[in-house]
Every structure is written in structure tokens, then in C-alpha cells.
Hints:
This protein has six helices and five strands; from the N terminus they run E-H-E-H-E-E-H-H-E-H-H. By secondary structure, it is an alpha/beta fold.
Amino acid sequence: MSQKIVVKELMGERCSQRLSPNGFRDGRFLRDVILYELQRNDSLEVDLNGIVVMTPSFADEAFGKLLYDYSSDQLTKQLKFIIGTAEPHIVNRINSAVSNRSAIIEAEKQKKQGNHFSKESVTS
């Protein structure tokens, strides 16, 4: 089963806050909606029609951080974007956010692996 989220209906045409005090119309809210729908549906269409502004922090919070719950391959298979009348920079902003977050997650993994030294291996 497939579901569709119309971002403009949820967020308005300007997607600019990573987090807001009331949690409404921010990147975390959109990410939570996406995660909820992905758990319930085989695929999800994210309709970006009419979006004129999307800040890097919003894109990271809404889309980049999805990589903590789904692999890049899973997201590619399950998420479909409808660009329509969205401003051209929106797609680049989302792609950059996902790419940057992927690099952050990889660095976090490397750091965790590097912190597993025993006392003996450090003093030897």
C-alpha cells in the first residue's frame, strides 16, 4: 500500500525550523510523520509542490535523520518525491542533507569503533 504526504499542507510553503518550542511545523514533526507512514505502508510519496523555502537545518532534521531509522537503500525504495512546482533548490537541499547526515553517521560509527580500546592495548 502507498501513502502520500503533501508537505505544504502540513508545513506551509516555508520549511525553516529544525525544532520549534511547540513541535509544530518543524523538521522533527515532518520526520515523525514520515516515519509513522513508512511503518504502516510499503511506500510513501512526499509531495513537495509549492514549497518555496527549505533551510538546511529543516532538511537535515526531516530527511537526513531518517538515516538513523532506515538505510539509504531502504529510503530510495520506499520514498518517492513529487517535485512539481517546488523551487529547484529544494531537491538539492534534501540531497545535501541526506549526504551530509550519511557522512556524520559513518563518522559516528568510526568513532565508536575507535573507542573500544582495552587498557592493555593502550599501555602496551
